[in-house]
Design goal:
It contains eight helices and ten strands. By secondary structure, it is α/β, with parallel strands linked by helices. It folds into two domains: 133 residues, Rossmann fold, CATH 3.40.50; 118 residues, Rossmann fold, CATH 3.40.50.1400.
């Protein structure tokens, strides 16, 4: 947390809530920024009374510093910073807190409250399931019937994530594959675009476990160079679409916003 909650009653009603600064990773690939812009447009449309801004940690504009400057210039006294990050790796644990600490020093009149990352929320994993089902090319019920896996008994899914330098972060990402398996009955393996196990290693493991049809489900919010790398490494299997703009993603971001405000209020009480 970076300061107390401030809500001022006006005429018997609370003023619109604090601004929301949604912080994306950033990429040299223009598809990534375009996708995240669409994601944040959906987030903003869900609560039009809240001032919603998109910022990037790296490689794209506007930066976190630029957006905080703009929010402060607009006269806001409080903003919630919601990381559009799927895991709690270096960017979430080090980069963003450092940027917000500097911003808080530059704008002491602006309280900055940091929300939690998206994480392996079951709603996002349900979206990952839906993207994979769409890639299978057939419609199935949302739940297995009689213990039968969705899409048939021999489906294998490689859940492909970015990968982190910290083994603990990669282990946490493995929870996504475990939840997807529990939700669908599919055989699942995890792979990483930047470290091992690789996508080809994960595919081999699934075949060894009896999977007859293998797909890659990217645990990515947006397409970019890393998703292209995964496709290039395994061109003979079907790759599902990234998460992208999605109702569940919008709901989760606003849940993180509300939870951050509740926590800030309890700290300031």
């Amino acid at each position: 947390m970076f300061g107390p909650l401030r809500v001022t009653p006006i005429g018997g009603y609370a003023e619109p809530g604090p601004a929301l600064i949604a912080v994306a990773h950033g990429s040299r690939d223009p598809r990534s920024a375009a996708t995240m812009s669409a994601v944040v447009a959906d987030i903003a449309a869900a609560r039009p009374d809240i001032d919603v801004r998109l910022a990037f940690l790296d490689l794209n504009a506007p930066s976190v510093e630029q957006v905080v400057n703009a929010v402060a210039a607009q006269g806001h006294t409080h903003a919630v910073v919601a990381p559009l990050l799927l895991g709690s790796a270096y960017h979430a644990r080090v980069d963003l807190p450092g940027l917000l600490a500097a911003a808080g020093t530059a704008h002491p009149q602006l309280a900055l409250t940091r929300a939690d990352v998206l994480g392996p929320d079951p709603r996002l994993i349900a979206t990952l399931r839906d993207r994979t089902l769409a890639a299978l090319g057939s419609a199935y019920d949302a739940r297995p019937q009689g213990g039968e896996p969705l899409g048939g008994p021999a489906i294998g899914v490689v859940v492909a994530a970015v990968g982190a330098g910290a083994a603990a972060a990669n282990t946490r990402t493995g929870e996504v594959a475990r939840q997807l398996a529990g939700m669908t009955g599919w055989r699942t393996e995890i792979c990483f675009a930047t470290t091992e196990p690789s996508v080809t290693q994960a595919i081999s493991r699934l075949h060894a476990r009896g999977a007859e049809r293998v797909l890659v489900a990217p645990w990515f919010l947006a397409p970019g160079q890393l998703t292209d790398r995964l496709v290039a490494a395994a061109p003979d299997v079907v790759h599902a679409q990234v998460i992208g703009p999605d109702t569940a993603l919008t709901e989760i971001v606003w849940d993180r916003y509300d939870s951050a405000l509740t926590d800030a209020l309890s700290l300031s009480a």
